[in-house]
Amino acid sequence: MPPRSRASAAVGIKAFGAHIPRYRLGKERVGGGSAQEKAVANFDEDSVTMAVAAGIDCLRGMDRSQVDGLLFATTTPPYAEKQCASIIAAALDLRKDIFAADVTGVLRAGTNAVKMALDAIAAGSAKQVLVVAADMRLAGPRGDAERNIGDGAAAVLVSRGDVVATVEGSYFVTETMLDTWRSQGDTFIRSWEDRFVVEEGLQRVVPEAVGAFMQKYKLTPRDFARACFYAPDARRSTEMGRRLGFAPEQLQDHLFGKVGNTGAAYPLMLLVGALESAKPGDRVLVASYGDGSDVFAFQATESISGARQCRGVARQISAKKTLASYETYARWRDVWTSEGAARRPTPPMPSLTALWRESDANIRLYGGRCRKCAMLQYPPQRVCANCLTLDQWEPVRLSDKGATVFTYSMDYLAGTTDVPMVLTVLNFDGGGRMLCIMTDRELDEVKIGMPVEMSFRKLRVVGGVHNYYWKSVPVRA
Fold it and tell me: What is the pTM of this model?
């Protein structure tokens, strides 16, 4: 089908991106004789840090000042009472006069947020809304759910005009269903009897929603190049496609055995994967699940050919490292404790006034450039170290700049989860120097002169306060 000529005035997706953690729990480590692997977030990652990474990927090369709103979708927010979207907006260096909200509590939170963004743009209250979805769910050790759940994030910039994919239609079903849940205080997700969950839940609700959508818009499976369905495992994904009348070649890669089901981010991650390889005119069907179902149809425009600047899904799947043991993963999630780390007193809770006062330097990662001599310093200083000019500096965002390692050290006694702690001194491209921790690293790859980039991570959690900062990471292919 030819692309729509009205793409310049239509509402749809202007840009997209994703984040898949670097590490995998390998085939021999997942347990239960599994022949697959899954993506696992590092010990200093959570749904907020992964959402920031996906947002950076989505906004690569874009003017961030044009974003009018941010919606963060997750079922695993680090805070039960504090907005996480505000942290993400600051880390992405978005304007302060934007609308932001957390959309949580249900697995279809990602597509719920897309619906809200589309409505805001259609109503004229915003021109561009960034939707980021991320999850880091936990299931009981060595079980089927743990083998199929992965960590990750996806982001789409919803906009009017000059979009890479227009929204062709939508349909929504809301129905209370206690099949998979997690109550306040639960560490692991809970689930009811498998056959009931699948037959009375997923395989009944999604086909009803997709069937009603097809009838509403007079469409058939043959009208779509790609179909993206929520599924708890690879078998159910294949069954769903067959049940709905889609040929195997129409089904988007379900990511099981590579990444896993990424919760609220899963339908959007499949959509990002489909858009990466879409051609002008291709239609993509997306159906989420969780207390109902949201169904969307997108159609790629001629602009899709120029939307390849993000890293997206495919490249991050191949850029990976495998964990040496299941015990490492369990220690990262605080499921098991280890006596291997150096014993240290519990660190004090960070000063909340200092966190607020220094948020531009620590969260937005602003350096300061002297207006007189153009020297760049981090953190910003009132007095220029070069020309001694007082209070004549302008903020410069460093979070999206490349850097190289000037020097480094390894601390085996720091008491960190990932021994040793690698401290790096970085030289940013275009000027500026910073001392920070390196993460997502293998010791044999750390060297002077290696290229790195910045990644928003957790330093620690003390007193319920999640202390975020930027770390250096090796550049991923």
Answer: 0.94
